Amino acid sequence: MDIFKILAIALITCVATLIVKQVKPDFASLVTLAGGIIILLMLIDYINQIFQVLNYIVEKTNLSPGLFGIVLKIIGIGYLTEFTANICSDSDSTSLANKVLLAGKIIILVMALPILTNIIDIIIDILP
Length: 128
Fold this sequence. Notes:
Largest sheet: none
Structural class: mainly alpha
Order of helices and strands: HHHHH
Number of strands: 0
Strand content: under 5%
Distance between the termini: 55 Å
Mean pLDDT: 90
Low-confidence stretches: none
């Protein structure tokens, strides 16, 4: 099971970060980032499976591919924002992490506006 490999890499990365932090504190963030990237690379097959299922759903439900693309972008922005904010927090840059989270939330809101307007249009069409 891949989860055990991922957990092992995470634990090894944590230990390596603690060791590197004592010797070269500047490189501790890089060790954490490298471990995170390795874990993300291990998830590529799972992410591909998710996209295949979501594509199947779009085909079967006749959802607009444009709106569905927006939803996928919003999900991606959410994950990337959280990942980046956690790296900033691990680097003792909490204020920067908070600004990254705020920026992500604002961008997500702006990207969601076409979906909201589409829902409002549907509601208006339904009302007499």
